[in-house]
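Training component of the fellowship. As part of building independent skills, the fellow (R.M.) carried out the full modelling exercise for a liganded target. The chosen ligand was fructose -6-phosphate. The inputs are recorded below so that the supervisory panel can assess the work.
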Amino acid sequence: MCGIVGYIGARQAAPILLAGLEKLEYRGYDSAGICVVAPEESKLSYAKCLGKIINLRTRTRDGTALPGGNGIGHTRWATHGTPSETNSHPHLSGDGRIALVHNGIIENYQELAARLRDAGYVFRSETDSETIVHLLEDYYDGNPVAALRRAAAELRGSFALGVLFADFPGRLYALRKASPLIIGMGEGENFIASDVPALLTHTRKIIRMQEGSVAELASDGIKLWDADGCAITPNPETIDWDANSAQKDGHAHYTIKEIHEQPYALRRTISPRLRGDEIDFGFTKISEQELRDCNCIYLLGCGSAYHVGMVGKYYLEKLCRVFAIPVLASEFRYAHPVVTEKTLTIVVSQSGETADAREAMHEAQRLGSKVISIVNVKGSAIAVESDEVIYTHAGPEIGVATTKAYNVQLNALLLFALYMARVRGTAEEIYIKEEIHALQTLPEKMESFLFDVTTAQFYASVYCGGKDIYFLGRNVDYALALEGSLKLKEISYIHSEAYAAGELKHGTLALMEEGTPVVAVCTYTPLLDKMISNIVQVKARGAKVLAIVREGETGLDFVADYVWRIPASFGFTQSALTILPMQLFAYYVALQLDREIDQPRNLAKSVTVE
Ligand code: F6R
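Fellow's submitted model of the complex:
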């Protein structure tokens, strides 16, 4: 979603803002803009453009047309009002003395806008964001921090703001509520940004702004206040990954680079939690007794993170003998969920900022459930607000469609299920150990499969002409097929659906005809015979079937049109391998169709609106 950058220091701000915005392109956007304080006259000058940042570069002659050492920049992902130059940020106050960039949604903007219009403020755009700048102008009496605090108290929704006041040419202001915003600390210069990649070429020392906090940045210092207006001492952290982690490293796209990074991401996620065969999450707020008493687990997430919950249900129910219910986060909040003192909630989120997931988590907490989050971004809202957090260590994921983060979430959840099963005594120790050993050897198996992508390229060329592609599976394979299908539709724009293969005969068989492309996921061995019957049924109607099977499996050889073999692994660790061919398939189909793979249309990386 929208991206924010800001710079204050001795260098020219505009080129730094443009480069920073380019690093945030992965979040998804349709227009962009920058604003700087012109040095001599303390005047705000800005430029905005529809489309890509290259347009803004051209318009501003790579930033040289806007001189000044203090500025803010923005990439917009339209929510209120069409993508257009007028609707893009920055928005300026009527007197042109305040400029603002905003990420998030203002829920009560209509009532505020009506009041401000009555008071004589003239709106130029259709956005909710413009309301904030007029509100600031209304409250501004020479004290920017006071105006920001007053405005924030009236705004409902989510907002990360970068703000310039022409009266304070040596200050850059920032405010954060329910949308991510970080501060980068440099030598004689400071920065703000929505995410770390925008800052990495300048500094690795960052401060994650607390919920409700306000910041005043100068080139030589930073002041911070919490939601109650009390001064906070900055607590910087050092980012332990470097700029290269956010580069393509010779790959054509971030997406394929990140697919290949999965073995490494998995090692980094699993090994810190294992001491020999012991699993340790270091929980302090959820006791072993609570895990023993638990009789229901909600698994909440959106999109791929929800699919992780779908897979996790099979892990938890089999290993821990507990009801495990995956629920779409956007539905959970409004579904009157049954929560008792024995309910546990697991929220899965790569970004840790997804509004639907966060609100669902708040609802679970309000109803009395403790929450464990599985999150990739350190210090993100969901990580901070949950009772316990299991961090995945996938590193920065720049491709909008998740790949490596999804896979490490699966395995973090598996490790948790094994831990909980041991605490509850619901699985044989010998079985738990075998799963743990298999987890440790998974990265090598993943590497060996990913080493050669020619098979993926071949099947992509066979299937890329399809109009609708169906994915079938049973048990965990069904849950994994949901993700395979989502990946394909997200980045190739081919319509695709995943079905539980046993459901075919209850309706979907009607769609099978000569040449219908079907990907049959057949790696869950206990139900292989049933999958073979389902494949025979679709073949009888003319479907063209690509079966994904474990090495050594021969049952499909004379049934499916194509058989794609993947390495076999013990028990539930198979999932991490089964998803790989589907990710590669989606990637190479999208490549053949020349799609914008890293930034598919209409999608955003961190969805901070409900
Ligand atoms: C799909 C995808 C999305 C996200 C979803 C949740 O490839 O990336 O479906 O999984 O928007 O995002 P997080 O995990 O950040 O909460």
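The panel noted the following from the submitted structure. The radius of gyration is 25 Å. Residues 302-305, 349-351, 354, 357, 401-402, 486, 490, 606-607 surround fructose -6-phosphate (CB under 6 Å).
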